[in-house]
Amino acid sequence: MDLRYSSADLAFRDQVRAFLDSHLPQDLRAKVLGHLRLSKDDFVRWHRILAQQGWVAPGWPAEFGGPGWTPVQRHIFEEECARAGTPRVMPFGIDMVAPVIMAFGSQEQKEYFLPRILSCEDWWCQGYSEPGAGSDLASLKTTAVRDGDHYVVNGQKTWTTLAQHADMIFCLVRTDSAVRKQEGISFLLVDMHAPGVTVRPIIMLDEDHEVNEVFFDNVRVPVANLVGQENRGWTYAKYLLGHERTGIAAVGRSKRELHFLKRLARREQRNGRPLLEDPLFAAKVADLEIELMALETTVLRVLAQAGKAPGPEASLLKVRGTDIQQTLTELMLEAAGPMALPFDPAFLEGEAEHSVADDDMAAPLAAHYFNYRKTSIYGGSNEIQRNIITQMILGL
Ligand SMILES: Cc1cc2nc3c(=O)[nH]c(=O)nc-3n(C[C@H](O)[C@H](O)[C@H](O)COP(=O)(O)OP(=O)(O)OC[C@H]3O[C@@H](n4cnc5c(N)ncnc54)[C@H](O)[C@@H]3O)c2cc1C
Known about the structure:
Residues 10-120 form the Acyl-CoA dehydrogenase/oxidase N-terminal domain. The protein is an alpha+beta fold.
């Protein structure tokens, strides 16, 4: 019996478990649990399986195609997906631009874009950051100048996640340079296939192509693709960031990774004994497990504020959640030792034949460790989150 949930919630959990057991393809599950890289097709396949079931957009109101779940049911769903090892549903369409379109978009934008987001007809990416405008986002310089029924966009975005797959990008652009910087920003939906859009890869520490630079050279964007009012984009941008940070604690995923870490440490030997029985290593794992249990309790307390969007508490969850995720990758690397790199890098793609020396459990872990350095930077860096906690929660 799980005392955290009502019997109705437990029945819902069983329903989700049964669905995942029967619908999550084994090849996708194996890639996720094995820390391998997922292709665009992998993400789209899982998105469409959930869409078919009506479960791809847990946070959407029922009128737009959401399942009408309570916050606790949404939490249970996320936990169960993490536990089962599903691919992530990319947040850029479902969790980021869609709420902004619902709240501030025109009727035409709602009717056109929302069904395409649900069905994954369009892959979206996020065009906020620029060189020189990350933490200080309002300093962005990409311009959009009105020319008849179009805006002409020029400038550069950076760190754009999976832009190489994208059909659409939501961009913050400068439409007035003469006013206070927050007051001259607009929110524009841009077709990534339009003439003048160029995507250049940035290869990360783990040698993966996950982020990009996106250049706009006289790109013509219909005025109909402006969301809300011109120069009010900063308000919409902040609304979106509130949505971005809510699921970021990723407790379910960390619980799954903790389980993986223990399996690995039980298998690895140190001084003739399983590593997990080494007192120093066992103490590190225990510390982490306690931190994770405390975070889970905090998440449930935040959820208990029914109906209230998380405020500065979201910053707390982000900092603790990402600290835990990074520590997990460090301990996995420590446990795997020299076997944490694949002999054949194509092994990480999960497709190519791999060397007999590749250790299925250990070989992806160095790449995984390097990749997870990102978590304390994106979604608003942890230093910025600590500033928010200091000012808004501690009142200092
Ligand atoms: C893997 C990855 C994916 C990303 N995906 C996207 C995406 O899809 N779309 C998008 O728009 N952006 C994306 N980003 C960008 C991300 O939002 C920015 O990297 C982040 O906001 C930090 O900005 P910056 O990199 O310009 O660093 P800077 O703002 O230059 O900060 C540099 C350092 O200084 C610290 N710092 C800055 N200001 C302060 C302050 N006031 N107080 C204390 N410390 C401070 C920061 O914490 C950081 O450690 C992604 C980033 C990464 C790493």
